[in-house]
Amino acid sequence: MKKWKTWIWVFVAIFCISTVGITTCCTSSDDNSVVEMQQPTIQRIQERGKLFVGTTGDYRPLSYREADGNYWGFGIEMAKKIAERIGVGIEFVQTSWPTLTADVLAEPQTFDLAIGGITITDMRKETMLMSDGYLANGKTILCRSSEADRYKSLADLDKPEVRVMVNPGGLNEKFAKENLTHATIIVYQKNEEIPNQVAEGNADVMITEITEAPWYIQNDSRLAAPLLNTPFTHGEIGVLMRKGQEDLLQTVNNTIRQMKSDGTLRRLHEKYGLIYAY
Question: Which of 86, 141, 184, 194 sits at a 20 to 30 Å CA gap from 220?
Answer without folding.
Answer: 184
